[in-house]
Amino acid sequence: MIIPFTGACPMRQYCPGKPNPTGLKAFILANPNGLVCDVRIYQGKKTGTKTGHGEFNVGESAVLTLTETLVPGHIIYCDRFFTSIKLIDELQKRGFKCAGTIMKNRLPKYLLHNLQTDKQLAKQGRGSYDVLVREDEQIALTKWYDNKSVMFLSSIHAAETIDECRRYDRKTRSYVHVKRPEVVKQYNSNMGGVDLTDRLLAVCPSRMRTKKWTVRFISHFIDLSIVNAWINYKADQKMQGVRSHKILQLRAFKQSISEKILDDYLLSENEIERATEESLDVMEEKVSKTTKRGRPPVKAIPSTSLRQRGSLHLPAMGTSQHRCRQKSCVMKTTIYCQACDLPLCLTAKRNCFADFHLVGSN
């Protein structure tokens, strides 16, 4: 993950191909649904050597450090930057299974000679594969050919089961069914959590202009904590049987958090005391000074958390009639709420004042 930042910082990196190529690089441990479990900031080539992983490279030490907080038994999926035989053996000792793509230059040459070449797999067609299993049967190397060959190194999956996936064929301009080993299926279904997190972080990010990398770092992790909270909120709502169209989207979820923070700030003890001490004459004077001609401007409906704060909302009698702001009410009234500053009916037949604050819908 890249934390966007273009100012002066000794840890700034440039990674072409990323949505934000310039910034602070971070190694992320995330679930397939995008929930971030742990973060480690890249601080140079010697990152990880001071944490007891000096014999491993940067990618391997990053995986070992991120998995220190995990309970043994998890399955770790990583891309070719991290995967190696040494890493999988070390994770095996710690009680973790691992699967991921791997580079050719990280494999011994005798293994590559025992595997079928790309030309041999290409002759067999798309979906062909070759598997090598180590003598102790702890690690399997799978080479799968689609449009080009891809190699997978795994300690849990290989080609024990074969299914079919749908792929597009440019020659025939149609979709075809291609054979797919189990390791490819599991890798594709469980990878992509960090990319999903990056996509969610792009929704209304709090990126104010700053020259200090610490400010950008803090604002980025505030957004990250909100994304994690929204993922947990969405999962809880689905477990409770709430329909999907009633679950808040990420943008609305962020807005509700900001409204709650603003309401708590505006309704502090000093603000409550100041609001209760204002007389009706001062309130009417404020309304009269808004406009000299025509209708006064329409006042915004307060947020739900503010409307349900019962200690502040008290009815007051005004001097002129205004249209009631409760939904489905078309009557006029002189009574208004002191906190909301909105006209609401309060009669023996209609109690729009209570409906507006209790139900919280308008």
TrEMBL record:
An example Pfam family from this entry, by short name, is DDE_Tnp_1_7
- Report which superkingdom the organism of origin falls in: Eukaryota
- Matches recorded under InterPro entries: PGBD
Which residues belong to any copy of the PiggyBac transposable element-derived protein domain? 1-230
The record's listing under PANTHER family reads: DDE_TNP_1_7 DOMAIN-CONTAINING PROTEIN, PIGGYBAC TRANSPOSABLE ELEMENT-DERIVED PROTEIN 3-LIKE
- Give the protein's recorded name: PiggyBac transposable element-derived protein domain-containing protein
